[in-house]
Amino acid sequence: MRAAALVLAMAATLSAGAASPRVAQAQNDYPNRPVSLIVPYAAGGVADVAMRLLGDKLSARLGQQLVIENRPGAGGIVAAQAAAAAPADGYTLLMTGNNTAIATALFKTLPYNVLTDFASISTAAFFDLLVVTRAGSPLHSVGDVIAAARANPGKLNIGTINPGSTQNLAAELFTNTAEIKAAIVPFRTSPDMAGALLRGDIDMAFEFYAAVHGLLADNKIVALASAGASRTAYLPQVPTVIESGLTDYEVTSWNGLSAPASTPARIIATLNHAVKDAIPSADIQTRAAEMGGDAFEHTGGDDRPVESGHEQMVRGHRKGRNCQT
């Protein structure tokens, strides 16, 4: 019996030793097939455009296609739940950002734990919102918006995308800060909201430049203000909401990449380095500016503060910026 036990023990040891090289080899070969990136928004919005832009560069650096999988709805919960349940092998990633922190604050319970179910790879980009209206609107400034809302409480219609989105909460913050009553009308997608603005179904909207830059270029809509701390490089003539009189108002959005929590550190490092290598490229910086990115920025790897769990993602913090949402 002792001899049999010894043989079994030796066999188990040899089996474990043989498995380790295979696991290590799988990690060393990563990626050897396409990688899926789940985006919690519909195609065409700023998050989708930003991730596709970054995804093209990552595909070239990783040697495998990074496939964007749009899963909008429920304030990003649907997408996050799918990513949290995926195998922790590096082949399913999640676009995280403002929506991740927002969902944690809005919902009493979630089907995942944002601190323990995800591993942060890197932040990628930061964006300022725009306050826009249709061309020919009687609203020419933030001051006009506030005056119109106060003259007819509850009559002003403000468009945003899904409830709980950065745009939606930015509108709520605006009405609270300005102390006005207005109807906030959520739409499922940015194109739906833009169409309603053009038709006159809504009076104004909160949206990112990437989603409306074509309409701005065609002079079909106009920007009344930007929501960041300072004017944007792409619309320097447009004042900030702060300059327009609401000195306590600032909204900045951010996004980045995460993976299921148990994803091997070697794979996280591979992805982190790929992001760090991709972001400084001249073409990605140019495209980021064209789509309204304040700047694509890498804040992972050596630049990432040491924090437990996924706290960096929840905080969504960039030095010098107050992300009030």
Q: Overview of this structure, please?
A:
This protein is of the alpha/beta class. The protein has 11 helices and 10 strands. The protein has helices spanning 2-28, 46-62, 77-85, 98-106, 142-151, 166-178, 190-199, 209-217, 265-278, 282-290, 311-315; strands spanning 35-39, 66-70, 92-97, 118-134, 157-160, 183-186, 204-208, 221-226, 252-260, 293-296. Strands 1, 2, 3, 4, 5, 6, 7, 8, 9 and 10 form a 10-stranded mixed β-sheet that branches. 45% of the residues are buried. The model is unreliable at 1-26 and 298-325 (pLDDT under 50).
Q: Could you estimate the helical fraction of the residues in percent?
A: 40-55%
Topology order in helix (H) and strand (E) letters: HEHEHEHEHEHEHEHEEHHEH
Q: Average the pLDDT over all residues and give the rounded result.
A: 82
Low-pLDDT segments, ≥5 res: 1-26, 298-325
Structural class: alpha/beta
- N-to-C terminal Cα separation, in Å? 67 Å
> Any idea what the radius of gyration is?
23 Å
- Strand content of the residues, in percent? 15-25%
Q: What's the shape? A: globular
> Would you report the number of β strands?
10
How can the largest sheet be summarized? 10 strands, mixed
Helix segment tally? 11
Short description:
This protein has helices at 2-28, 46-62, 77-85, 98-106, 142-151, 166-178, 190-199, 209-217, 265-278, 282-290, 311-315; strands at 35-39, 66-70, 92-97, 118-134, 157-160, 183-186, 204-208, 221-226, 252-260, 293-296.
